[in-house]
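Duplicate of earlier report; Amino acid ABC transporter permease input re-posted below.
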Amino acid sequence: MDQFLDTFLNWTYIWEVFPDLLKTGLLNTLILSVSAAVIGTLLGMVLAVMGLSTKRWLRWPARVYTDIFRGLPAILTILVIGQGVGLLARGLVGNNPYPLGIAALSLIAAAYIGEIFRAGIQSVDKGQLEASRALGMSYSKAMLLVVIPQGVRRVLPALVNQFIALVKDSTLVYFLGFLTSQRELFRIGQDLAANTGNLSPLVAAGAVYLVITVPLTHLVNYIDKRLQTGRKVTAESTEMLAGGAAI
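Output:
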């Protein structure tokens, strides 16, 4: 038991690694995750709209992109973009792998977020679009102002879940060889664990990840509960209106 505690809960190493985890690792993890989430959300919305298009030349590229980036392991995508595309983009990023890590995470996230948006948009009753067109709106305006906002609202829990996955996937960018000041939580914990032969720094890194992901998990549950309550109230109001009309 003492050996187990010394291997995983050695407070000397935990306190030693915590300043770097909070000052460098947490900041870089959030920069990687938030940047990839924003870019991935924008690209995902474009993919969703393209995937729902009636034009084949828009629909098929979105489908192929989604299949490729959802089908490949995340680490393979990160290595291909970071080490392969990085050679072509050296004139833009130099030897700095940080932007390439963000780009790789963004492209991966876009494939999943695009499918989330597409499912949300398709869940909106077709009558919403038809009613908007009957009021004189163009197809694009009706989608932008009526259908898409309703679809996005319905998939908020799934979007937050995807952000949680993105935070965890950010650990994989350490394969690109970031500088000391660019290391994320996992890399900082791993470096000290390798130097000391003790796993306590990785446990400390895991604790910081939990500080990020656990509140987000509860946020997902809260949003989902609020949405279910809203749908229940809407359904009851509709039934009351229908009953009143019948009377």
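The CA atoms of residues 86 and 95 lie 8 Å apart.

Merging into the original ticket.
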